[in-house]
User: Fold this.
Amino acid sequence: MTVGRGRVSNHVRRLREAASMTQAELGERVGATRQTIIAIEAEKYAPSLELAFKLARAFERPVDEVFQFHARG
Amino acid sequence: MSRHEKLAWWTLGSGIVIWLFLLTRFTEDGRIIELPAGDAVETYVQVIVLWIIAALVPAVLLAKRPAGTDKDERDRAIAALGDRWEGYIVVIAINVLVVHVLARAVYADRTPSVPIPDFGSTTVLIFALLTTLFIADAVKQAVVLWQYRR
Assistant:
């Protein structure tokens, strides 16, 4: 099976704001810098599987509720 | 701006300044001059010392920062991409040098239509190799900055 390049979107900003967390607080919780949280929220950086799971755990949500993969083509 | 981005700006800026210093010592009117061995060694040592100082300044300043500001996975991914591009530049530059030397040897009896540096000269070789390192590092820092700012 071939999976082409795609795009990863996420609901990190919405979930973080719902949890009343700052970007720095979320970053500290998952072991990332504030700049990385900013880049993830802006969808300029797709996190590793490990960080994606940590973020989902921080929001107490399943990972596919936080991140979505959109296949291209 | 993250501290890694500031470090990349510093490294790029200091690298350019050191390379300009090298340029003033090794060239005259846009041409590489044949330096006496003593002068070449002196310039080389000066460049290395400047390079070490340029690397130490941010290291000392960053050491005063509180814990918890280490690189995360994005910083490491960006650094790895920068390292990869630095490697590409070194490989390309070394191959260009090798092809130049081979071309000079193969076509020794012909006069080139464009001036080709003589890599048999110690000064030219030192300048070319150090310039390769500076260009490779500049490309690395440019890639890092582009990744942080895109």
